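[agent] plan:
  1. take the single chain provided in the ticket
  2. run structure prediction with default settings
  3. attach structure tokens to the ticket
  4. add a short note for the reviewer (M.T.)
[agent] executing step 1
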Amino acid sequence: MKKVLLFAAVALACTLDLSAQQFKVITSVESIVPNGFGRSRIINALEDKDHKEFTSVQSEDDNTRNKADRGEIRVKNFEETKLLNFYNIGGIRFQNIAANDALLSSMINDMVANGWELAFVTSAVESESGKGDGQGIFITRYIFKK
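[agent] step 2 finished; step 3 output follows
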């Protein structure tokens, strides 16, 4: 009976340890700049950063500032997968969108095959929208967990 209880306790401890989750963010940036002048990419950081190293506390009593240089925040090791721009000289290119979808599907399938689960997807569009608007991006963040 003691062996059964010991085995159950060890199994429970292993299960609790396995329940810790890890998250990974991969971002796609697709240019919506007319005439195909923009750059579109899938970006995947290959190194981790500890947000605590770059966080400061602001209060009335304590004005502790983090003295970290902005250069220390930058990630220098990352993958950059080329995507096609939404527009070319002739206007919107649906073939480019389909090609990007194929590459993004490949990336998601690869992540899933490596044990990640697609947990969340969030996207946004940034565009100047002023007179002669010639800038803009469509950004999507894919948040994976395991």
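[agent] step 4 note for reviewer: The beta strands are 23-31, 40-45, 57-58, 63-64, 78-83, 87-88, 91-92, 117-127, 136-145.
[agent] ticket updated
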